[in-house]
Amino acid sequence: MSAPFAYDVVDYPSTALAQAHPSHLHAIARMFGCPAAPVERCRVLEAGCGDGLHLIACAVGLPESTFVGIDLSTMAVQRGNRMIAELGLENVTLHASDVTAWMPPAKPFDYAIAHGLYSWVPSFVRDAVLKLFATTLAPTGIGYVSYNTFPGCHIRRMLWDMLKFHSAAEEDPAAKIRQAVEMAQFLMAGWPAPKETGMALLKTELEAVLEKRNQQVLYHDDLSATNDPAYFHEFAAHARQFGMRFVAEAEPHLMETRGFPKDVANVLNGLASQDVLLKEQYLDFLLVRRFRQTLLAIDGRPPREDPTPAAITELFLSGKPKAEGDTIDLAPGVAVTFRATRNAVIRTDLPIGKAALEIIAATWPGRILFSDLFQQASVKIGQLNPDPQDMTRLAELLSAVWMAGMIELHGHQPTYREIVAERPKVCPLARLQARLGPMVTNRLHETMRFEDVPSRKLLDLLDGTRDRTQIAAELMNSFPPDQRPTPAALLTGLDRNLERLAKSGLLVD
Questions:
Q1: pLDDT in tens, 275-314
Q2: Three-point CA angle 427, 428, 430, nearest 5°
């Protein structure tokens, strides 16, 4: 009698993957010279889709596109199919099937995704995944594969081995998880102060394990019997066996060299001029990287060393760059420093560039098409007849800003309501998720967390049939009796939360 499939025994928590959304893949592919398919009418395949939440969220926002998922877990697929039926979606299908035996449809796919699969399956399954992508992608298709990498995973592997050793005697998944957490706590408690000790290497990894909110991830990722990291050059060679080549990383800022000391950056750039893959491998050495999310193509062309700034003119932009100081001087020759997450820093004296970054920040979390951004920025600096050379300069600046990790690029504009209606309505998928747990997906394909019962109840009530007075009356009962606010306070809080939901991309028409 064979053992039950691990993912049928312990659910793996699903999430929408912003980095694997076709809009995100499209933008990166275009920037690195690949004519990827338009997002609004594309075909997407996901291998190892779990319950298909990522695909379901994509399907909700892209009703004219088609999504297909396969996963070995029958229970996960059944769970996903129940969600699909409840939402009434007709553009997404999930199949409980082995990736090594699944017969794909004749029509090719524009995008193919394998997230959290490659490193956690035997070598013959890895072969099957890459072969599936190579044979089912359209000529302009883009593949996305995430995987564990060396050298970083040499450190994490030490911890994996310790956790597995301590929990080896336990067969029950819950007990195995408890033993692994116990071991991590034991190691953290005994961590010595001197930096030269070997345990100092594990401190960050231990913190990551102990901070995980969902221990099912610990069970499948860290205690998995199969977990085979690879050096980047090994993964690239494996993909090449199936006719696929490196395009870029799903997080392009990790490809950027300008953040390194000048001498190091010069070496990396010199490597890139000879061989982009060699430069990427040396970046992994410098970053001690342990996880990659790589885009692949089957077009047979060599990878590009740098993005193409002109490609940004067809894309949408978003971000929250913040200028230093209270005001932004748009005058020529006055340099302004902008900062954002990931320690991204850009300093520019280009008037239209300063204006554009200010507009992008004001639009956030919304997105703006480059042509609209250029027009608005031109007006902001007093140019009623925009200078074509300024368009080129702006494209070059924003391409560099993107590579620095300060802004995001997208292939489409999601639809959601930014103004609260008289009878507000939350996206049906988010309402369904709120009834099942704390994690919901907005129309920007981002995961949001609603921990308390009243906040999730609010999402459930926003089905477009109630006005704010009715919502408040029904919401009152979701609070414990000793914590119920006054009616006036509840209405004030409700208005504030509705505005937040609108700004977060959760409200729809």
A1: 999 999 999 999 999 999 999 999 999 999 999 999 999 9
A2: 70
- Contact in structure between 120 and 224 (CB atoms under 8 Å): yes
CB within 8 Å of 465: residues ≥ 6 apart = 423
Residue 499 in tokens? 């505005």
Cα 31 from Cα 110, distance rounded (Å): 17
Residue bearing tokens 């119920």:
484
Could you say which DSSP state residue 218 is in? I
Owner of token pair 């060299």: 257
Q: How confident is the model at residue 205 (pLDDT cuts 50, 70, 90)?
A: confident
Dist CA 124 CA 119 (whole Å)? 12
Using DSSP's 3-state secondary structure scheme, residue 87 falls into: helix
Supply the Cα-derived Rg of the chain in whole angstroms.
Answer: 24
CA–CA separation, 315 and 407 (whole Å):
12
The angle that helices 173-189 and 203-211 make with each other, rounded to 10 degrees, is: 140
| pLDDT over 70 (residue 6) | no
Bridge partners of 71, per DSSP, are 96
- Element holding 491 (H helix, E strand): helix 487-503
Token representation of residue 321: 């760059």
pLDDT digits (tens, 9 = 90+) for 171-185: 888 888 889 888 988
| 1 pLDDT more than 50 | no
Q: With contact defined as beta carbons under 8 Å apart, do 25 and 250 qualify?
A: yes
Q: How far apart are CA 193 and CA 216, in angstroms?
A: 31
Residues forming beta bridges with residue 249, ordered by sequence position: 294
Report the alpha-carbon distance of residue 284 to residue 277 in Å, rounded.
Answer: 11
pLDDT single digits (tens) 425-446: 999 999 999 999 999 999 999 9
Q: What is the pTM of this model?
A: 0.93
The alpha carbon dihedral of 406, 408, 409, 413 has a sign of negative
Enter the tokens of residue 464: 């477009």
Helix axes 262-274, 276-287, angle to 10 degrees: 150
User: Measured in whole angstroms, how far is the alpha carbon of residue 341 from the centre of its chain?
Assistant: 15
CB 381 within 8 A of CB 355: yes
Give the pLDDT band of residue 129 (cuts 50, 70, 90). very high
Token duo for residue 364 = 């956030």
| Residues whose CB falls within 8 Å of the CB of residue 411, separated by 6 or more in sequence, listed in order | 22, 23, 24, 25, 26, 27, 30, 36, 38, 39, 315, 316
Which residues share a beta bridge with 67? 44, 92
Alpha helices in 275-427 (DSSP H): 276-287, 351-363, 370-380, 388-403
